[in-house]
Amino acid sequence: MDFLSWAWNKRNMAKKLTTATLLVATAEEASNLRYACGFTAPDAVVFLKHGSARHLVVPPLELGRAQQLGGQTRIWTPADLDVSDHERRTLSGWTLGLLRKLKLDAVQVSRTFPLHMARALESEGIRVDVCDTSLFPKRVIKSEQEIDNIREAQRAAVAAMRKAQQCIQQANVDRQGKLIWKNKTLTSERVRFEIDVTLLHRNCIAQETIVAGGRQGADPHERGSGPLYAGQPIVLDIFPQHRGHGYWGDITRTVINGTPHPEVLRMYHAVKKAQREALAMVRPGARADRIHQHVDQVLKEAGFETSVSNGVAQGFFHSTGHGVGLDIHEAPRISSSRQTLKKGHVITIEPGLYYPSLGGIRIEDTVAVTADGFEMLAGMKKAFQLA
Amino acid sequence: MDFLSWAWNKRNMAKKLTTATLLVATAEEASNLRYACGFTAPDAVVFLKHGSARHLVVPPLELGRAQQLGGQTRIWTPADLDVSDHERRTLSGWTLGLLRKLKLDAVQVSRTFPLHMARALESEGIRVDVCDTSLFPKRVIKSEQEIDNIREAQRAAVAAMRKAQQCIQQANVDRQGKLIWKNKTLTSERVRFEIDVTLLHRNCIAQETIVAGGRQGADPHERGSGPLYAGQPIVLDIFPQHRGHGYWGDITRTVINGTPHPEVLRMYHAVKKAQREALAMVRPGARADRIHQHVDQVLKEAGFETSVSNGVAQGFFHSTGHGVGLDIHEAPRISSSRQTLKKGHVITIEPGLYYPSLGGIRIEDTVAVTADGFEMLAGMKKAFQLA
């Protein structure tokens, strides 16, 4: 080792020794906090990781539950921190008190760290470094336990998907083409209710379930409302969070009661092919952007162009997938950004096609990247025409 | 007007003219975005208010739904902003593009504005001022429509509370004192399930419902788990969000199947008295800290001391209430901070007492401050001993 690199290493080791990871866990950072020390709370708390030491400052109200975390994390309340009355009332005061106790003068924080906190720390001479990647880079690689948790949420999603498809399959069709189920018009809201009850039975909850028929399905984020019709594709996108451990699942199917327009059927088969071929590319070392480009190419070769028409995007205009864990959308992204898949990643593969005149088609599964390919986390066959 | 104040006003008017309100609506700011322009989306977007003009930058995926907002808000996608390819991929790039289009060089942002965004804007010469109060100060005063929305969520909460109390009231007691309902042990989880289904029927969802019996109830944020027992107080705290308009309700009752310990009964009556007297103080002009102090005093005079014992807080150690709206916890706080109630505030009043050996008692209603007092938003009688 030459002198320059020795000096460089020494400087960086010194930096490493003094730079602690700080987390002010508001809603935005709840999943990082849960990952870092297992704590969940409705109130904001301060978490600091310094080497192998973990510190958590909680309001007195949270003390009892914080103490159940076990010996890994040292629990503080503001009263332990020798802070002024004013500091005792603010999260930046708690943070300053903790940093003084630990004799630290620099922290690294996430990109979304609250600006006012950063300024309050800086005005007291603390250096605040933004960490441009994940604060907890190991979060992207899931343990066996984490994969089990995601599988559990995914099984609930599959059960709910079966229930939703049952409603649509069993429905009759009235003269206007509306679906009728149990003597009532079958609406997006009704299907969503059946999905939600099925999820609750499995201790899962879904906030933004999509049941979007016909033209509504042409907007990938439209949740859907009102009557469902025969002969129109219905996008069902279910992404529940388990209320115990907090991990998510994510599945999408597109189904139809009745006969699809030939062009809609062609869309369905193109998306199904794109999804199958994208899945076949999933393995350690695969480049996420190449999977995304392949999906793009399969859809284009099937004749489905992507464009903006009258200000409305149509074709395939979202990413191919995303990581799933304690957040529903997390790293890695399967999109045009260059990332390499690794064993232990859990990702969705979800190509789609959207045209205002025809509706939307999307097919999505959640898979874990294994040593030599992928494992489907709770599979479910793909059927389009249900009745 | 003397010259100095004229100059001061001129400077501040100039500032007012150039300082726009910027919102990068991630999860933390979703309710502000909804308030400001009615838009909700799973993805982050950029919102800017400058005088009476409103601007929203959305990804192409959200364009269709954004355009349905109506003429009040000008909708942009990154492609409209003449930004570089690099800027097109980042929220700070979108923001810079919009600010250049509008010839603005300063913004005011919320306290929780993401630090990395602030630094990216500052490095391009934009002044970023943190707004120390609410970005949208009028949010605290609810319109008639907003109060109707909260009432709707609160009615759902009351319906769910009735259902929960029915389960507990109808339960039998086995030899170990466990509650038995429909031939099964009645657990916190089962009661929560019944609550959640009732809420779903009213298009509401609750994430953190508390059903905490016995010692579990002594921790105000413990959600509760496992069998419920006769003779132990059960804290039921239900705070649903309406899935349509996004407003919340909040109600707490404490109930018991069987005969309470005399000390628990005394706790109940002290909390009930504190809540009644606190409610009676609610009117425009009332000081929130005085209401909180009064609750403190009523409970102390009834002989219930607040302290920390073996590191665990006991007695009354949370605030008396909080504002309710598009967030479940928002301004004003009914606590030791000095705030004055105004007509149109919607607040909870929720005193409680917690002792590890006895359990917890909390009673909570949500009320709107009216011209001469308050309006209970969906009332419900207070009964402790159900069977």
- What is the number of independent domains of chain A? 2
Please, how many helices of chain A? 10
Enter the CATH topology name of the largest domain in chain A.
Creatine Amidinohydrolase
Radius of gyration of chain A: 25 Å
Largest interface summary = A-B, 50 and 50 residues
Quick one: CATH class of the largest domain in chain A? Answer: Alpha Beta
Strand order of the largest sheet of chain A: 4-3-2-1-5-6
Topology:
2 copies of one chain form a homodimer.
Chain A: H1 3-18, E1 19-25, H2 30-37, E2 45-50, E3 53-57, H3 63-67, E4 73-76, H4 85-88, H5 91-101, E5 106-109, H6 115-122, E6 127-130, H7 144-170, E7 172-173, E8 179-181, E9 184-185, H8 188-201, E10 204-205, E11 210-213, E12 234-238, E13 241-242, E14 251-255, H9 262-281, H10 288-301, E15 307-309, E16 312-314, E17 321-323, E18 330-334, E19 346-349, E20 352-355, E21 359-362, E22 365-370, E23 373-376
Parallel strand pairs in A: 1-5, 3-4, 5-6
Antiparallel strand pairs in A: 1-2, 2-3, 7-8, 8-9, 10-13, 11-12, 12-14, 15-16, 17-18, 19-22, 20-21, 22-23
Helix pairs in contact in A: 5-6, 7-8, 9-10
